Amino acid sequence: xxxxxxxxxxxxxxxxxxxxxxxxxxxxxxxxxxxxxxxxxxxxxxxxxxxxxxxxxxxxxxxxxxxxxxxxxxxxxxxxxxxxxxxxxxxxxxxxxxxxxxxxxx
Length: 106
Known about the structure:
It is globular and about 40 Å long. It has a three-stranded antiparallel sheet with strand order 1-4-5, with helices on one face. The protein contains three helices and five strands. By secondary structure, the protein is α+β, with helices and mostly antiparallel strands. The mean pLDDT is 85.
């Protein structure tokens, strides 16, 4: 399939929509449950909220990781929304450099 600027624009819009809805849903969950609970509880509530919004959400699905054609391990993200957005709920009082690196994938 040949990519056109229209195809790319549609993909970008879909990605932005999934990311924005994920962020809004996370805030809804946090505001409803309040701070102080275990990460898994927020994750499970977020799955419920995302599905209420009509989004496809995979939880704890293993993905093989390859480098230069060779399998180097597996990645198990907490949530993948609409096959495009990785969501990793965190319960912390402050974000440190490690958290930021995890979010950016560096």
